[in-house]
Amino acid sequence: MIIADTSVWIDFFRIKEPVHQILSELLENRNILAIECIFGELLQGIKNNYEKNIITKYWENLPRLQMKDLFIKAGIYSAENNFISKGVGLIDAVILLSAIESNSQIWTLDKKLLRTLTEEYIYKY
After folding, report:
1. Residues 17-57: pLDDT tens digits?
2. How far apart, in whole angstroms, are the C-alpha atoms of residue 40 and residue 59?
3. Are 74 and 90 in contact (CB under 8 A)?
4. Which domains does the chain have, with CATH numbers?
5. pTM to 2 decimal places
6. What confidence tens digit (pLDDT) does each residue in 60-92 have?
7. Does the pLDDT at position 125 exceed 90?
8. Residues 88, 78: contact at Cβ < 8 Å?
9. Which of 1-10, 11-20, 78-87 has the lowest mean pLDDT?
10. How far apart are CA 101 and CA 70, in angstroms?
């Protein structure tokens, strides 16, 4: 499975290529794992009900990671890896831990997050 970071979703919704085409194919094949904090970030930036409905429909229909105490575990994981001194926040730690727990790769355009990831967790299209 692949976790598409907020940055990827934004390019997808803006129909920026090649992101739009690649993510469309991954969605059609049900290869995208939805993470709550990513969809929360997307919803935080909505401008109208139309955008809200689109994002909500993706959230409702995609496979999701269900992990108890995810933010607590991500906070501990972040502290153990000194992420805060690297400019990596809690949301990125949640995304990284989600990838580890679900054996998924992360597709991100965020340079700070990319610097934190090991090769095995980076989705390369």
Report:
1. 999 999 999 999 999 999 999 999 999 999 999 999 999 99
2. 10
3. yes
4. 2-121 (3.40.50.1010)
5. 0.93
6. 999 998 889 999 999 999 999 999 998 899 999
7. no
8. yes
9. 78-87
10. 10
Q: How many CA atoms lie within 13 A of 58 on its CB side?
A: 25
Q: Whole-angstrom Cα distance, residue 49 to residue 45?
A: 12
Residue corresponding to tokens 């794992």: 33
- Alpha-carbon distance of 47 to 95, in angstroms, equals 25
Q: Which helix (H) or strand (E) holds 23?
A: helix 19-28
SS (H, E, C) 46-67: CCCHHHHHHHHHHHHHCCECCC
How far is it, in rounded angstroms, from Cα 38 to Cα 50?
18
Contact 123, 107 (CB under 8 A): yes
- The token duo for 64 is 């999701």
**Three-state DSSP class for 79?**
helix
Owner of token pair 């805060």: 84
